[in-house]
Design goal:
By secondary structure, this protein is an all-beta fold. It has no helices and 11 strands. The relative contact order is 0.28. Strands 1, 2, 3, 5, 6, 9 and 10 form a 7-stranded antiparallel sheet that branches. Strands 4, 7, 8 and 11 form a 4-stranded antiparallel sheet that branches. Helix content is about 0%, strand content about 40%. The protein has one domain (about 5-160): Immunoglobulin-like, CATH 2.60.40. The termini are close together.
């Protein structure tokens, strides 16, 4: 067998964890699997931050290493829109206040964000989580109303 991998999202005061999320929609509510029609981001504002991490499981593997995270999409951004990211952060109650994180790298060689295990090492040797990746979609007054372009977020790792 090999390692299994799923994304988890943490929300709310006190941290409610949802493993196996099915989407990473950004919106005006602090929740997982958002419907952006119900919780749109008002032009000129930021989404609530998303605290995601990867959960590894399965059997037959001994090490996960070289974990990287980046954005790889063709359409990119609409005017005034940016996607911010920070790696290996501690969970904090998500906020819709614009944060000062860096723009998410656009390729693996940009360089991508290096992700650590929950223990703060560069490898995972038993089933468990990585550290958090904090994401936030920010807009300006010049961002067009309506849906934004879909983003392709990439997570890569080596498995032994």
């Amino acid at each position: 067998m090999s390692a299994t991998h799923q994304f988890s999202e943490s929300n709310l005061v006190g941290e409610v964890v949802m493993d196996g999320i099915t989407n990473l929609n950004f919106g005006s509510a602090d929740d997982h699997d958002l419907n952006t029609t119900t919780y749109p981001i008002t032009r000129g504002n930021a989404s609530f931050e998303k605290y995601i991490r990867c959960l590894f499981g399965g059997t037959g593997w001994t090490e996960i290493s070289n974990m990287k995270f980046w954005r790889s999409d063709v359409l990119g951004y609409k005017t005034g829109e940016t996607l911010k990211a920070a790696a290996n952060v501690a969970f904090a109650t998500p906020s819709a206040t614009p944060n000062a994180d860096s723009d998410i790298p656009l390729s693996e060689s940009a360089p991508a964000l290096a992700i650590q295990s929950a223990a703060g090492t560069t490898t995972i040797t038993a089933p468990g989580y990585t550290k958090y990746i904090r994401l936030q979609l920010q807009t300006t007054g010049s961002t067009p109303s309506g849906s934004v372009f879909q983003k392709t977020l990439c997570f890569q790792y080596d498995e032994v």
